[in-house]
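Type II secretion system protein K, pasting as requested.
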Amino acid sequence: MKNQRGVAAVTALLIVAIAASTATYMLAQQSAMLNQASLVANRAQADLYARAGLDWARGVIAQDAKSAGSVDSLEEAWAQPIAGLPVERALVAGQIVDEQAKFNLNNLVRGTTKSDNDLAILRRLLESLEIPPDLAFAVLDWIDPDSDLSGVAGAEDGFYLALARPYRAANQPMTQVEELHRIRGFTPAYVAKLKPFVTALPAVTTVNVNTAPIEVLAAILPDLSRAQVAALVESRRGKPMRTKAEISERAKNVPASTVANDLDVKSAHFRARVQVAQDDVQLATEALLRREQNAGVTVIVWRRPLY
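Structure tokens follow.
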């Protein structure tokens, strides 16, 4: 009788232990599901804030066209970053960058024809950054529609298909600068050096003399010394150039064709980056924006998440 009572007691304890263990497991699962649901909700909310940030950037750029007219400079409202704006439980930061302050790699091919002038500009820019200038031919071959090698450092399908992980040359305009990683000769170090000074825009563009860094302007203006280019950049502080004629006045040795074809005082393409931190969620997104000069609106060319 005593043995039966002992077995019954042990069995009861085992049942209680199993029940407690099951309840604990179920509570843990429920807690994990609630945490996951909360994380998904926070992520969705943060994404909405990021989208709203891009809409804010579009509005700022569109408003700038009305207030500043046909001039864009680094002293205008669009160029001032937002370090951290509190929005309910989130912090939103944003920045707008003038993409026409950079050299457009797609300028290398105009229509279906190679641009010798733009090829020379890219070669000078590469050389100034201590990157082999002949790599400009590899960029040209990546963009141009033919399969002919442009130079000793050029590369077409024959080179790329022989790689361990083969692929073909794009043979079309670049969509994003990161394509440089796929082009012959461009190491990650070279891409990191070059990336701040080049862009990939969907149309042939000029460089905004009011926003471009010294490196880009020096590559476009080989008739000026580095000191003269630096003086030109300094002269725009507080007094941006308002017309192409004013560019010629401040840089007297610059050929009229360079001012006409390669430089301007305004921009139509900008890159907006928005960062959101909400509870345990952090995300960033960026977009290429194009301001339509006639319509007075700003459209999103592409958008991508960063993290």
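Note for the archive: The chain has two domains: 3-100+269-305, 106-195.
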